[in-house]
């Protein structure tokens, strides 16, 4: 596969010039119709996603992927047979790289920053990217998930995949993992700016007599994963509270809901579809805000823009509007730059937007409780080396 953003010249070693590789972690999406099935197989055979005994997983995962291929193919056909996620993630990386190189990271040191992309379920995946990062020869690596809220199924899974790939590539440099930024002030403000713009536009198009309700719609999760201790739902609620506080819309009618249920188990709710039904019943228009995706992809462009819009019409919802995802919004890229700066100076292997653990104790799958030990115990990995160096210091 051609990876223009990651084919980089070999390092021109210089003692005074430090190199920082920022690896953007994202989910990935098929790049052609024939990639849809193998992409889904990668997704459904991930132990973080399909929590069944290991000997059943390859069979069951393939079966679920096979069943999902048809609806997924129909969805991706609307987008020309592929996901836009890679292009949008590369664009975010380019904007972040330009900003970090322009503004610098520390007043007292001159550094060169390069952004790379590692996708979890489709190319470029961690092994390819770890090799590209190694070839560039950084002094330090920062892993930056494009998921604001931590879930074992997303950031947790990607971080583990990266650490294993980095060990295979013998990429032995200090590595910091930014685990979440659900309540980062810059992230909340830039999201509020986007939502406020969409709100003002919707209001200007809507009959003033019709009330408008904001549906903050996040990707759902099976309830069993949340009950097992995954902090994702709690973190989504924190994001929404932070964004609403910055909207300057007193008494805003809003709700947090969850979309994209793809397995038969019980998923967390309320579902976005149920909220559309309630809006139809209450005769209020809706502004749907994707709150757990930072770029457009199949679930915003197809599920929100096509399927739920049609559903809203059927349910006689008197108006349907959708706020865009962050993509390369300057405020959002500024927030990512701040996370990188903070991660570098935190002196932590695992760093939230504010440094230490943010999740209340009952979320036992918070990475500060559940992931850090596993990462540090992986022999020969960059994280283990960072941990040892930090312990020694
Ligand atoms: C916050 C983000 C996400 C969480 C949490 C998440 C959990 C999760 N996802 C599935 C199954 C599928 N997800 C699919 C696509 C997809 N998922 C996310 C994000 C989260 N997933 C994104 C950004 C994308 C889109 C990629 C793209 O198309 O550009 C898909 C494939 C599409 C489809 O078939 O509709 C599946 C399947 C599960 C089971 C799960 C938690 C257990
Ligand atoms: Fe998903
Ligand atoms: Fe946490």
UniProtKB/TrEMBL annotation:
<dbReference type="InterPro" id="IPR019772">
    <property type="entry name" value="Ferrochelatase_AS"/>
</dbReference>
<keyword id="KW-0456">Lyase</keyword>
<protein>
    <recommendedName>
        <fullName>Ferrochelatase</fullName>
        <ecNumber>4.98.1.1</ecNumber>
    </recommendedName>
</protein>
<keyword id="KW-0627">Porphyrin biosynthesis</keyword>
<dbReference type="InterPro" id="IPR033644">
    <property type="entry name" value="Ferrochelatase_C"/>
</dbReference>
<comment type="function">
    <text>Catalyzes the ferrous insertion into protoporphyrin IX.</text>
</comment>
<comment type="pathway">
    <text>Porphyrin-containing compound metabolism; protoheme biosynthesis; protoheme from protoporphyrin-IX: step 1/1.</text>
</comment>
<feature type="binding site">
    <location>
        <position position="299"/>
    </location>
    <ligand>
        <name>Fe(2+)</name>
    </ligand>
</feature>
<feature type="binding site">
    <location>
        <position position="219"/>
    </location>
    <ligand>
        <name>Fe(2+)</name>
    </ligand>
</feature>
<dbReference type="InterPro" id="IPR033659">
    <property type="entry name" value="Ferrochelatase_N"/>
</dbReference>
<keyword id="KW-0350">Heme biosynthesis</keyword>
<dbReference type="InterPro" id="IPR001015">
    <property type="entry name" value="Ferrochelatase"/>
</dbReference>
<keyword id="KW-0963">Cytoplasm</keyword>
<dbReference type="Pfam" id="PF00762">
    <property type="entry name" value="Ferrochelatase"/>
</dbReference>
<dbReference type="GO" id="GO:0016829">
    <property type="term" value="F:lyase activity"/>
</dbReference>
<keyword id="KW-0408">Iron</keyword>
<keyword id="KW-0479">Metal-binding</keyword>
<comment type="similarity">
    <text>Belongs to the ferrochelatase family.</text>
</comment>
């Amino acid at each position: 596969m051609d990876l223009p953003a990651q084919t980089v010249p070999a390092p021109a070693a210089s003692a005074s010039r430090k190199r920082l590789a920022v690896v953007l972690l994202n989910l990935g999406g098929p790049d052609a119709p024939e990639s849809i099935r193998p992409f889904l197989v990668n997704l459904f055979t991930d132990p973080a996603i399909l929590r069944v005994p290991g000997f059943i997983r390859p069979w069951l995962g393939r079966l679920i992927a096979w069943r999902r291929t048809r609806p997924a193919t129909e969805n991706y056909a609307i987008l020309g047979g592929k996901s836009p996620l890679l292009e949008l993630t590369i664009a975010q990386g380019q904007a972040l790289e330009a900003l970090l190189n322009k503004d610098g990271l520390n007043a007292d040191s001159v550094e060169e920053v390069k952004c790379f992309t590692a996708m979890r379920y489709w190319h470029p995946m961690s092994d390819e990217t770890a090799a590209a990062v190694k070839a560039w020869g950084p002094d330090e690596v920062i892993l930056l998930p494009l998921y604001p809220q931590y879930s074992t199924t997303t950031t947790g899974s990607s971080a583990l995949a990266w650490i294993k790939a980095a060990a295979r590539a013998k990429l032995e440099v200090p590595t910091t993992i930014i685990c979440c930024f659900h309540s980062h002030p810059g992230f909340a403000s830039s999201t509020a700016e986007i939502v406020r713009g969409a709100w003002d536009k919707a209001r200007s198009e809507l009959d003033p007599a019709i009330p408008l309700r904001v549906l903050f719609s996040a990707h759902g999760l099976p309830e069993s994963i949340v009950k097992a201790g995954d902090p994702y739902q709690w973190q989504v609620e924190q994001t929404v509270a932070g964004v609403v506080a910055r909207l300057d819309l007193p008494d805003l009618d809003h709700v947090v809901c969850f979309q994209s249920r793809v397995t038969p188990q019980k998923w967390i709710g309320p579902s976005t579809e149920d909220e559309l039904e309630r809006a139809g019943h209450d005769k209020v228009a809706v502004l749907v805000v994707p709150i757990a995706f930072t770029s457009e992809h199949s679930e915003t462009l197809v599920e929100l823009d096509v399927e739920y819009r049609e559903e809203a019409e059927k349910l006689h919802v008197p108006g349907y509007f959708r706020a865009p995802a962050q993509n390369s919004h300057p405020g959002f890229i500024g927030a990512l730059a701040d996370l990188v700066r903070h991660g570098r100076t935190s002196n932590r292997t695992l760093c939230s937007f504010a440094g230490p653990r943010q999740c209340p104790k009952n979320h036992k799958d918070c990475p500060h409780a559940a992931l850090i030990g596993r990462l540090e115990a992986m022999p020969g990995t960059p994280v283990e080396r960072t941990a040892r160096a930090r312990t020694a210091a």
